[in-house]
Design brief:
- This protein is mainly beta.
- It has a single domain, classed as Metal Binding Protein, Guanine Nucleotide Exchange Factor, Chain A, CATH 2.170.150.
- It is 9% helix and 39% strand.
- The chain is built from two helices and ten strands, in the order βββαββββββαβ.
- The longest helix is centred in the N-terminal third of the chain and has 6 residues, at 32-37.
Amino acid sequence: MEKTYQGSCHCGTVRFEADIDLAKGSNKCNCSICTKTRNWNVIIKPSAFRLLTGEDALSDYQFGEKSSHLLFCKYCGVRSFMRGYVEAIGGDYVAVQLSALDNVEPQDLLAAPIHYADGLHNNWMQAPPETRHL
């Protein structure tokens, strides 16, 4: 069931709302950036995301094909969400970090299915052989 969640960075400068159905699943990946930042996200359409405050506080990091904007608060360093375009997942997207949600219940996170991607080997639709560390 879709629910509107509020989220923020650590210092509260970046605040957003997002319409998310956790039952549709979440994502974890073993590529270097996802492993190092402990990425756990849900991918939604841009129309389901509303940045409320902090656009001017966002810094942008890109790598590789530069199809994604890994945005973070320039004051506290927290990555609350990223924006990008990837044809294979339906074009424009916003990936909301579940750890940045302020009003999510732990049991809702525990119940959310997780899709694992072997990004380390560019095998995005396949789970890596080991996922416990993700």
